[in-house]
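Exercise 7.
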Amino acid sequence: MKVTTKKYELKKNKYISIATKALVKKEWLYGVPCAVLLILSFIFHSWFWTLFLVGLLVPALYIGFWMIQFAGFTQHEMGKMFFYKMNYEIDGKQFLLKIDAKHGMPVEWKSFKSAYKIKDGYVLTMSKAQFIFLPFSVFKKEGDRRLTETILKRKNLL
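Solution. The predicted structure, written as tokens, is:
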């Protein structure tokens, strides 16, 4: 069985938003030392501004750095392919990205590290900056969405 989706174009702002949320969700633990510094700034008044600014600026600069990287990926030649208007063919053997009937690119399932569901679709991750977003609206029928979810579960991604 194969799922063929409607054509979809990932907007660059949506990409940056999903990538940033995934980064924060994955690496939130690194914010704990910064939170400790913020708390310590209120305990040690003589070091207030130093601890407060370090505790506040380090996570802000880290997230800002990655947002710039994600924005740069949208402009990079390697990343442009992710923002073409295309449809997808999904089956148990491969994940096919199709720009039109003649041009497409297969992606092997082993290329995906994980997948997760968000409120409006599925995110299939390949790396920190590379992923494929499948909104629920691209599926032609509800059965196609369920079949895709089943395939993702069988591949131990979801």
